[in-house]
């Protein structure tokens, strides 16, 4: 018996003992009306009337009709059969069900949340497992000016008919200037195409932050993989930053922008093609860029804040090539969590780290023409007091070109003499956009804890020498044997 029921029984007992309504109310610290209410219930229904009653309305005027529920369930089952048989697309979620109902002229047309509620009630959906939040604090950048950090992410959507598309969005963290474009898929070539569009419109920032999608990272299969997007960022001169896995908060600005994008581009409308999506999105982007609603901008618009001063918007021609891009000197960063085995996974390789498990660390891959290193820090690069905890050699499987080398020969010396050992015949050299990191060369202390594979470096230099002087590979291999 709960406390409320005990209190009501006590009120009836006091009344039966001869006390007045006012005396009972004073003793129980209740109102006289409360005592009269339960006295009336007791006279009408006895002790059973002292139990609480449901406050739900007797009639629900906006209750979902049974016929509509049956139509939703039927549409879902038909989509499942088509997906299993291969006769249709493999989309069976609430958006696809709503599109099917719309084609069938079902009225009233239920919303996506209503369809999801009906499917859950019919047990046609799987319960989503809630991911446990881990108290990990990751090092992160703290940009103070525009053009320092642009965050990029993908939000999926469905066209009318159920076709899934990938909507790439990017936003400058400081100026809040956004851009975006929708693609049929989320391939590496699509990600590279969008990033080129973004840098041409918004300028090349110092850092470009992305998540760990395969189109950005190069996939999760091959060790030491340096994919198309990584090579593109190195060629352009921006430092790519990979967010922690399963931690969207680290990419919070663009994740928050997705909410505005979804509300203004996708809600209360039907979009049947990529052209319609991009046209609708561009209208929203134009309004957003000229809006002064951002409290952090103190009345300025994202457009005014972003283009004062104008950013560097030129990207090298080699970055827009469809061929495999060479490696250029530069840095690639990763925000990672230390595992229980005291390792961090970067480029599909587990690297030992001296930090305790469940610690957030900052990992930097530094590529130079003669060597490459993986350094693990406790803080992001814009923190002066950070310390390097571990250093590991990174095996180079191909030459790394110096971005500071001249694009064309300036005298009659050999190409190898003009650009060290990195310039290859017929390749365009990309001018440097900023000075090299003074930490690119390891200190004596760091070298003492590393065993760099000298043989691998020698072989890479030899192959580069072959290509420079056009020495037949068979002849060189014969001499080596």
Automatic annotation (TrEMBL):
GO molecular function annotations of the record: nucleic acid binding
One GO BP annotation here? DNA integration
Q: Give the span(s) annotated as Disordered.
A: 405-447
Protein name, as recorded: Transposase
What InterPro entries does the entry give? Homeodomain-like_sf (IPR009057), Integrase_cat-core (IPR001584), RNaseH-like_sf (IPR012337), RNaseH_sf (IPR036397)
Which Gene3D superfamilies does the protein's record reference? Ribonuclease H-like superfamily/Ribonuclease H
According to its UniProt entry, this protein's organism is Litorilinea aerophila
Domain named Integrase catalytic: which ranges? 139-310
């Amino acid at each position: 018996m709960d406390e409320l029921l005990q209190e009501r029984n006590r009120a009836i007992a006091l009344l039966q003992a001869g006390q007045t309504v006012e005396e009972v109310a004073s003793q129980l610290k209740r109102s006289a009306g409360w005592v009269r209410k339960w006295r009336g219930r007791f006279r009408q229904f006895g002790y059973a009337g002292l139990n609480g009653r449901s406050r739900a309305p007797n009639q629900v005027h906006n209750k979902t009709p049974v016929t509509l529920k049956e139509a939703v369930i039927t549409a879902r089952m038909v989509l499942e059969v088509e997906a299993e048989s291969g006769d249709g697309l493999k989309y069976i979620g609430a958006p696809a069900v709503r599109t099917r109902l719309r084609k069938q002229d079902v009225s009233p047309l239920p919303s996506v949340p209503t369809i999801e509620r009906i499917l859950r009630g019919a047990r046609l959906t799987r319960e989503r497992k809630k991911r446990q939040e881990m108290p990990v604090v990751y090092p992160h950048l703290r940009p103070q000016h525009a053009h320092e950090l642009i965050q990029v992410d993908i939000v999926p959507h469905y066209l009318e008919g159920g076709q899934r598309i990938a909507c790439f969005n990017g936003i400058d963290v400081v100026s809040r200037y956004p851009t975006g474009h929708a693609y049929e898929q989320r391939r590496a070539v699509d990600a590279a195409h969008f990033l080129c569009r973004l840098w041409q419109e918004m300028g090349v920032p110092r850092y470009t932050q992305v998540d760990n999608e395969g189109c950005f990272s190069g996939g999760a299969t091959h060790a030491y993989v340096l994919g198309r997007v990584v090579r593109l960022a190195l060629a352009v001169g921006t430092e790519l930053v990979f967010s922690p896995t399963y931690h969207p908060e680290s990419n919070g600005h663009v994740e928050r922008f997705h909410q505005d994008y979804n509300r203004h581009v996708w809600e209360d409308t039907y979009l049947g093609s990529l052209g319609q999506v991009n046209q609708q999105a561009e209208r929203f982007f134009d309004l957003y860029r000229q809006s002064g609603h951002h409290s952090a901008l103190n009345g300025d618009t994202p457009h005014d804040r972003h283009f004062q001063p104008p950013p560097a918007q030129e990207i090298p021609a080699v970055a827009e090539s469809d061929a495999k891009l060479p490696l250029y000197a530069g840095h690639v960063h990763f925000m990672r969590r230390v595992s229980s085995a005291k390792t961090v996974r970067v480029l599909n390789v587990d690297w030992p780290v001296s930090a305790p498990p469940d610690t957030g660390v900052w990992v930097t891959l530094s590529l130079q023409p003669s060597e490459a290193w993986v350094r693990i820090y406790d803080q992001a690069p814009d923190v002066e007091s950070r310390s390097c905890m571990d250093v590991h050699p990174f095996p180079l499987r191909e030459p790394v070109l110096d971005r500071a080398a001249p694009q064309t020969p300036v005298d009659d010396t050999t190409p190898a003499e003009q650009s060290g050992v990195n310039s290859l015949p017929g390749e365009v050299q990309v001018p440097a956009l900023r000075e090299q990191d003074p930490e690119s060369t390891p200190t004596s202390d760091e070298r003492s804890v590393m065993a760099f594979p000298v043989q691998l470096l020698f072989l890479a230099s030899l192959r580069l020498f072959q290509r420079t002087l056009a020495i037949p590979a068979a002849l060189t291999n014969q001499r080596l044997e």
